[in-house]
Each structure stands twice: as C-alpha cells, then as structure tokens.
C-alpha cells in the first residue's frame, strides 16, 4: 500500500538529567493500521507517548519548530487538551480512571468540547441539554460495546484491572479520535479479558482508526500488529512489517530476548 502517514516525527529528544530517554530521528505511523512499539524496559516508549500527546515536553525538537505533524497539523508546543482535540488520544500504562467517580461519570469526562462550546451552549439551555443527552447516549453505547453497561453506576475503583483497561479505552473513544495510542493495554489483564481486548483493538482498526500500542507480550504483537517499530535506548533501531521484524534473529536476540 502507498505510504500515508498520519503521524510524522522528526528529531525529538527528551533528556532527564544525563539520561537520554528519547532520541527519535524520524518516525512515521501509517494511517489505518495497527502499529506495535516494542523494546526493552526503559527504552523510552512511554516517554515517547507522553511527548506525542503533550503530557511531557521535549528537551529539543525538530528543525525550525517542525517536530511532529499529526493529520496535517504541527503539534510542537501544543498542549495536551488541544492535541486530544486534533484526534490523537492515548491511554496510560497505569490506568487513570477516577476511582471515586462512577463508570458513567468517567465516560462523561472523556467527551471533548471544542473551546468555547460549553460557554456558547450554556447561553442557550436547550442546546446544552441536547448536547448533554447526546454525550450521555454515546457513553452508554460505548459502555455496551465494551460490556461495561451493567457497571455504569459502580465506582470505577471497584472494577478489576482488565475492566479498568476497557473503561480507559472506552473513555478515550468519547472524543471520536482518529488515532489511539495504547500503553500496554494487556498488562495486568486476566486471560479471559485478553481475548476480548484484542478483539476491541482490531475492531477499532476495522472502523478506520489508527492504532499505536506498546506491548511486551510478543504473541500479542505478532497476532494483531501489521507494522512493528523497535525502540532501544531512546532510538528507533528497527521497523518493518510485523512478520519480518518478529522473525529477524538480530531483533530477537538484541531487543526481545528469547520469545
Ligand atoms: P517500560 O517498558 O519499562 O515501561 P519504557 O520503554 O516505557 O519502559 P520510559 O518509561 O519511557 O521507558 O523510560 C525511558 C528512560 O527515561 C528510562 O531510563 C527512565 O528511567 C527515564 N525516565 C522516564 N521518565 C523519567 C522521569 N520523569 N524522570 C527521570 N527519568 C525518567
């Protein structure tokens, strides 16, 4: 297929004191496929996600301020909320569900409003009520899709680890993203839910979404990703079609260990 990058990254560096956590020279993520980002502990994968989604700022980035471009927009020096509004959302390795709020309340928080929308709507209560009703209906739809509808009034804190991962994914979808970045979506999930999570990730792709995910389980990577990017010591050290990368002895020896 013709390359069609939705995300393009150039010369992004993030240092913590003397440690270079991320030093990415160039990376493209192709639209509409599932890409896995793999690499040993401390390779910089989470830091890379943080940088892309505005949760952390690079030490240096790009040339002339052009460091990363998402879906035609330059995102350098764009805040996390504004980045989410461009259609790129992420989940966290440690889930961020607010445990003292209900599942449904967590979902309502995921709905993104355009700047000023809330104010504009509040000046006209019927429009605000309509918008709220739409958001509510959407939240219930998504909860049903992720089989969390029966839990909607439970505190998020009462969910199992796997259910929290599902909630986080569902919540991320509230803003109708075009790309979703999942940080170890399978970690801490019991085997029964693993299959269903994998199915959900594939169905996001089938719906036309671009998926980039960090994963340590090589069976999972092999099973659902079309493209694999290998990171080590902050750099992209290999990438290619999943089958090729996952059967490359050099990659296996150097970066994955015995799998
Ligand atoms: P894992 O697979 O274990 O989650 P990772 O590939 O996501 O690892 P990062 O968490 O991005 O790796 O860490 C990359 C490097 O940056 C590590 O050496 C880490 O110790 C360092 N690092 C990350 N965040 C910080 C921070 N806030 N302060 C200092 N050092 C940090």
UniProtKB/TrEMBL annotation:
Domain of life: Bacteria
Domain ABC transporter: 7-258
A GO term for molecular function: ATP binding
Alphabetical UniProt keywords: ATP-binding, Nucleotide-binding, Transport
Signal peptide: none
Protein name: ABC transporter ATP-binding protein
Species per Swiss-Prot/TrEMBL record: Nocardioides panacisoli
